[in-house]
Design a protein that fits this description.
single chain; about 220 residues; alpha+beta; 6-stranded mixed β-sheet; 6 strands; about 30% helix; about 30% strand; globular
Length: about 220
């Protein structure tokens, strides 16, 4: 038994460093993250079975996490950085707020997986109320795998009872991904680096004034999807 513990120790240490180092960012990385989020939306748009148009039309918020790292060896974990946006009263999308997702899991699992994750929120209040705190998906907000199909008929018989619907594109050898139990938090340092320290997440969620090329690209990609 002791031998097994010693054998697992270096594996768990490697897992820790993968999760941390793979998502470490500094102030120069926010534009890159926005471009990555835009590319995720473009890639989803090329898929035969994607997020239904009607669901996007009716949703009030969206979270995009490019290259979420999902790794495990008995005990698993996930970590990634991305953006969150909500719909304003005029129907336009807000400027993106930078967020961080973390989580853990137990069970028979082994491998490392890079996942492009998109979360569709029925109500924007779940995101805007986060402000300086965080919330747990599946705890504070019920989550489910989202329906697929581009036409309105894809959702005819689908009961939209969850608050969050998840969509993902995976790479690697990991079998599946579970978002329930994951923690979504505002990345205050990233927001300060991109927008300036005077802008809170609440302020960013309430405006659509950013004229940077990266923000425009994300909004255009979202409208095209």
């Amino acid at each position: 038994m002791k031998t097994l513990k010693f054998m697992m120790l270096p594996v768990m240490m490697s897992l820790f460093f993968i999760l941390v180092s793979a998502t470490t960012e500094d102030g120069s990385k926010q534009t890159e993250k926005l471009h990555s989020a835009s590319n995720v939306l473009k890639d989803f748009g090329k898929m035969k079975e994607s997020i239904p148009h009607d669901l996007l039309e009716g949703c009030q918020g969206i979270v995009i996490i490019p290259k979420l790292i999902n790794a495990g060896f008995g005990i698993g974990g996930k970590r990634g950085k991305g953006i969150a946006m909500v719909k304003l009263e005029n129907g336009k999308w807000s400027d993106p707020v930078f967020v961080t997702m973390t989580g853990g899991s137990f069970g028979l699992q082994i491998g490392v997986q890079s996942v492009d994750l998109v979360l569709v929120f029925r109500h924007k209040g779940v995101l805007t109320k986060v402000k300086n705190g965080d919330f747990t998906i599946g705890g504070d907000a019920a989550a489910a795998a989202g329906p697929v199909g581009r036409s309105a008929s894809a959702n005819t018989d689908y009961k939209l009872e969850a608050e969050v619907y998840s969509y993902s594109r995976s790479r690697g050898l990991f079998a599946g991904i579970t978002i329930n139990g994951s923690n979504l938090a505002i990345d205050k340092s990233a927001n300060a680096a991109y927008y300036g320290p005077a802008m809170s997440s609440h302020d960013i969620f309430e405006t659509s004034k950013s004229n940077t090329v990266a923000v425009k690209e994300v909004k255009e990609s979202l409208r095209a999807l």
